[in-house]
Protein: Interleukin enhancer-binding factor 2 like protein
Organism: Atta colombica
Amino acid sequence: MAPTALQSQRKVPDLFTTNGIVGIVSHLASIYDSGGRQAASLLNNMVRGRGGMIRGGRGGMGRGMGFPRKQFLPRHPFDYTLCEAAFPRVKPAPDESDFQSALVKKNADMCPTPKEQTSILNLVTKLQSVLDNLIVAPGTFEACQLEEVRQVGSFKKGTMIKGHNNADIVVILKTLPTKTAVEALGNKVHNDLKAVNPKEIFRVTQTEYGFDIGNNEATVRVLITTLHQNLRKLESEQHLDVKICQGHLAAIRHSRWFEENAHHSSIKVLIRLLRDLRSKFEGLQPLTPWMLDLLAHNAIMNNPSRQALPINQAYKRVLQLLASGLFLPGSAGISDPCEGGNIRVHTALTLEQQDLVCLTAQTLLRVLAHGGYRPLLEGTNKLAVEMSVWAGGVVASPLEKAYEPPTEQEQQEDMDESTEEMITESI
């Protein structure tokens, strides 16, 4: 059981010595290694500028006193799959054939129907043809110049869900993506589609990310971006938002990486199941589709044998990793394979979101450990926010949040210290 913040503080050495300041950081780090989210929150309070005695890089006692800044060493949380040989079983593994069958059936129920697959494929093919023609022979169309057209998203990856008959196509422009140019491109594509397919009804809808082209059965989201060297020239009032354009370029990198590394069918099945789990529980909704892709790939393939794990083991492993703090501050997490600088994907989440994901996974893992897999797979429920009782009288109570956002007074103190630090350094 994780120690409370008060218990942790009682073990802290004297703050007013050199060894005391270094010791408190080491002590809190060792507590964090034990898996306690409350200790992680205390570490955040005292070291990362939450009103504590030590404010890393923001003034405080350690600032300017000659104390070396402690090097950040990310740690990977406990993962039983990676060290299974060190923990030999004393009895046979439980039979999870029913659980595995339920997961397979759930995936089959979530797969798009043949009719949905045919309709979205036909629309994507027609739209791709029109866009490719604008690259080769734009004719009199001069609103913008197209560089490349790439399919991305769940349709390209093969992880679509029944009832969500959408596909995504990224269009890279040679020219700057002005709002008027994007609107003109949408109208041009719409008119060309109608000219080639006069018996079909198409609709175009302008959006903040580009435009949508749809018919009565499917919709394709056309995501507009520009060449990387043009991003610094974008102006918010005249062009599409630069962050949206950067996101569309990232989607191309994600799609390419997935095609090369995550083509195993078990990964696609697990992604579909994780998307369903995320839609059911609010605490998991901060996880982005890209995070789910990487989680599924890591759970399936990152093991000593380098062979795909069974789907039931991988599903449970995802919850185990999240519950043990894979996406908490200080964790090595999962490095983004499409970005430089060893960026950990979970750093895109706020501290409050990281805590919420962790406590939700902990509650769901306790339910799953006592045979409660059906509520996780069937229907909408409140397992993560309400108490439930399972076989043997086991009570699964929702956990409380460990992270507390700083008060306005603490935020003001941080701002004052930053201002004072800037003035001191300028002198």
Strands lie at 146-152, 166-173, 203-207, 210-214, 219-226, 388-390, 394-396. The first strand starts at residue 146 and ends at 152. Residues 1-66 have pLDDT under 50 and may be disordered. The domain at 111-261 is CATH 3.30.460.10 (Beta Polymerase; domain 2).
